[in-house]
Every structure is written in C-alpha cells, then in structure tokens.
UniProtKB/TrEMBL annotation:
The chain crosses the membrane at residues 47-68, 209-230, 237-258, 285-304, 325-346, 395-419, 440-462, 533-559, 571-594. It comes from Anaeramoeba flamelloides. It is a multi-pass membrane protein. Residues 634-669 are annotated as: Disordered. Pfam families: Choline_transpo. One of its GO terms (molecular function) is transmembrane transporter activity. This is Choline transporter-like protein. Residues 636-647 have a biased composition (Basic residues).
Amino acid sequence: MSNEALLSDEEHKVVAGKNIHDMGVHEKFEYDESFSGPLSQRKHRDVFWLILFIIFWIGMIVVAGLAYSTGTPKRLMYPKDYRGNVCGMDNTKAKDALSSNYTKSELSFLSDTSDLKYVFWPHDGSSEEICIDECPTKGDIANPLCDESINNYIDKDDPYCPYKTESILRRCLPTQLTNTNSSDVINKVKKSVSGSSGLSKVMGDLIQGWYVLLVSIFIAVALSFLWLLVIRKFARFMVFFTIFFYFVMLGLVTWYFWHQAEESDNIADDKKMDTDTTNAKVFRIFFYIMFAVIVLSLCALVFLRKKILLAIAVIKEASKAVSDIPMVVFFPLISFGMLLVLYVWWVPVSMFLMSSGKPRLVTEVPATGDPYLVLDYKNEKSINYLGIYHFFGLLWTNAFIVALTQGTIAGAIASWYWTRDKSNIPGSPVKESFLRNCKYHLGSYAFGSLIIAIIQLLRVILEYTERQMKKASGENKFVKYLFYAMRCCLKCMESTMKFINRNAYIMIAVYGQSFCKSTKRAFHLIGRNLFRIMAINIVGDFLLFLGKLSVCILTGIIAMAMCKADDNMSLYVIPSVLSAVLAYLVASGFMAVFEMAIDTILLSFCEDCERHDGSSVEKEPYASEELQEFMTNIQHNKHQSKKKHKKSSSDDEQQNPEVNVSGSGSGSD
C-alpha cells in the first residue's frame, strides 16, 4: 500500500516530535506531516497471550484425544432398553469394569445388541421397552401374525404384534392410536421422546423446502446491500425516521398504560374489586414512568441535536467506505468458515467427552414386581472439569475469531479514511489488514477475547448455579432477585468490555500498539468526545436494528409465499420462520461490518479533528466535505471557548490586581 494509506519505516519514527509508542495515552493527537493512516512498521505485541492461547489449544487437542479414546457417542444417539442396554452397541464390554463387584449371574442381562438398533414398547401397558432389529410393520390387536424380528422378545404365550409402527429417532412408534394398548405405549414413549411425529413432518418439510432456505439467504444478502444503498442515498431521512419511529412507539406504549389504567378504574368502580384498583395503580405508575422517559428523550434530543446531524454524516461516510471496499462485506464469510471449522471440531469432541462415563449398576424398583439391576454410566469429576475446559476453549476461540474479524475490518476502513483520494485506494485494504493483524497482533486479540470468554463463562456458571439451587431448595424470592442482579451486572460488564475491545481493536489497527495501551488511548479519545460518540452509537444501533428487522421480515414474507405455493409442504410455517431466522443472521453479520465501519470512521474523525484544524493546506483534514462542516463548527467552538476563558482571566486580573503584586513580590523575595 502506498504512503497515502501507510507510513513508511522512516515516517513512522516521529509523530509531532515524539515516537508514537512513547506518547501518553491521555495526550491529544497533534498535527504531524508524516502521519497518513495505519502504520507500516510494527512490532509483535502481547506475545505472552498468544503463547498462552497456543498452549491452551494444545490442551484442547489432548482433551480431544482422551475423549476419543474413552467416549462412546452411541450412548447419546441410540435408545436403551429397560435394563439400560444401549441398542446398537455391545454392552457386554461393561462386564470387565463390573466383574469385581458383581457375579456372572447378576451381569447376565448385559447383552450384545449391535444388530438391534431400534427400541420397541410391547403391547402390555405394564411392560418395558426392548431392543429389536427393525420396527414391526404388520399385525394389529386382533391378528396373531407378527413380524419375525420380534418373536424372540415377546411372551411366547401371547405371540402377536400389538400394533403397526414406524421408526422415529430409532424408536418404534405406533402409526395409529386407536386402541387402549397403543395409548399405554404412547404414555411410555413420551418419557423417551417428545413430539417425534411432528418432528418428522418438520424435517420432511425442511428437506422438501431446502431451496427456500437457500433462496432466502441470497434474498437477505440482496436486501442488505439494498439497505446499504438506501442509507447512503437517504441517510438523513432514515435517521429522522428512526427517531420519529422511536417516539411513536414510546407514545403508543404510554397511551396503552394510560388507557389500561382508566379501564381498570372504571371496572373497579362498577364491580368494587380491589384487584382492579391495584391494576389501575400499577398501570398508572408505568404511565408516569413512560411519560418521564418521553420527556427525558425529548430533552436528550434537543441537547444532542447537533450530534445527531453528525451521526447522519458519519453513517453516510461509513456506507461510502463499505461501498468502496466491497470485499469488507464478504470478509465475514472467511470468519464464518473459521467458526464452522471450530464447531465441526468442537461438537464431536463434546459428544465423545459426554459419553466417557464409567459403567455402574443401579437398582430399579418398578411399581409392580421385584427390583432389578439396570446398567448406567456416571461421569467422573475429572471428565466434568475437562468438559469445562473444552467449553471455555469454545468461548475463547469464538471470541478470538470475532476479534480478528473486527480488527481486519477496522484496518481496512481506517486505510480508506486516511487516504485523500478515496476514488483510487491503493492495494487491497482487507487483505493487507488481515495479514498485518495475523503477523503482529494475534496476541492482542487473544488477550481481548480472553477477557470476553471469562465473563461469558462466569455467566454460564451463574446460570448453572441458579438452576441447581432451585432444584435443591425451590423458589426463593431473595435468591431469585440476587441472581437477577448478578446476571444484569455480568451482562453489562460483557457489553461494556465488548465496546471497549471494539474501539481498542481500531487503535491497534491504526497504531499497532499493545492491547492495554490501545485500550487506554481509545478510552481517552472517547472521553474527550463522549457526547458525540454516545449520540452516534444510540442512533446507529437503533438504525442497524431496524435494518436487521426489515431484512428479516421481508425475507420471511417472501419465503412464506414460496412455501404456500408448494403443495407438497404441510407445515409451511416452519421453513418460513427458519428462513426469517437465517435472514436475521445474515443481516446481523452484514450490520456487524457496518457497525464496525461506523465506529472506525467515528474514531478516525475524532482524531482527525485533533490533528488537522484546516488552518493551512498542510493541516487540511481527511474527512469528507460534509464531515468538514462539523469539524469547522467544532474548531470554531473551541476558539470561542478559549477567547471566553482568556477574557474571564483578564477580567479577574483587573478586579484583583493585588494578587499579581503579591505574587511578584513574593517572587522577588
């Protein structure tokens, strides 16, 4: 990339008379003739965290090896008979681990069911499930004929197949529920699997409508690009429409609470019911709260009106950047590929790990009859700890891939912003940003993603602890609200860290400093431009949400029309809803790129304001003409505030001349 976008090795050394890596993070950016965007000369940063990440992944590979050597995923995928034998598996292997504590006769029920992969519930309502080689397809309650595959497993004195069946998830379920015995079986089946018949229809419709899902993805991509075009051409209208829509929704909700309060009052007067009086009070409280929200929102709108106009300009600038670098939109596909590889690795290892328990026998006490032994498997504590390790690896790696994606997008957009001739962007910004990040900053992304992963793990542990406490001691209001408060704190902490990380990655992409220094620099830059950034984030986030919602709804409507036109679909709602969900995910990926572009443009603009005041040709800002109008206003306001400060200082000196006299006297002494 040319020096319009990147500093050369010599240019990198001095920034405003200082090495950029020695600048205090709290200092404002000053004019430097050599600065023109992301630095080319860099060092490997946060190497310790990259080494830690690599060591952690070596541990992940060791865990996978242990899981594959001890796990048996068939235990999770195949059903069991009433004695715990897994259908489709040689259960006699468990005898080796159990022979020291049990006699051969006690273990005789363990059998090799490798060829018996289906479970069947015989006709007697009190009997239990058994493994068979295929589901019975002939016979009924009055017919003594039965499929041969079941003859060896049913009572010889009662040798008939009680009902026709079909295989659902390797469970032989009745095709018709017209007799009492079949109903008894269904009650037992419900304990094993819920809604399997409906599931088969859903799966059938999804297979039948695969083309709808595929077309929906392309429609979502097209609508996302269309939305970008609309934002670029009609940014002002879209932003004001978003604000208008926000106040309309607030007004409707407020009116609803007021209407419900009035209605409850009228009912209470007619029926003299205390409940309706209480409802009226509650609705009136919510009405006052919403009214206060409207008033505060209007005050914020007046206070931030100029910042909202700046938000329009920044959003338009971000849409230009994404349009000029179309590869930045498709880069998340590479990230999606990396995430896909991660999950293809993680899911099978998890299945082997979950099925790594040791065999044991437990005593089953039926409602009628004698107790009997049942084969069961129990995971050791070490397996549970390995599961936590494996799960944390998923969280960390997932956050790492997201961080690398954000850093790559930030580097490409920053290169675009700090290029004066934006119609002729040198090189391939996305490719060069990605390679630069991979070469120098993987450690920084490993550090930032580690923080996010730790917070996410704490949230999962908190949820698990709450569920265990509910099971142990039931519902407790104090505990419930305590956990609710902790969940809110962790959620806020995660959102805050994601915001800080995102801005730190922008600074890393431009200056190549460590994660901590970049975080501090971004934090201070945000602090100096707090209201500006706050307004743009609020408007931008709501606008992005509307974009995702619009793409989701439109795609869902089109998908439903396609499904209804297909006569072979019975539950066309399911493919339609899934299409809408896929569209939302596609739009979310697209909007994430746009959100990162907005943040990068915004921080670059804030830095541009500090570096270039437009007082000379050399100090001409990089911002577009529309953004330069706001920059001029900002510089004008700064000069005005300085003049006022000087004037007030001189007035104080004139009113209190003795201060200067005493000061000079003391100095001479």
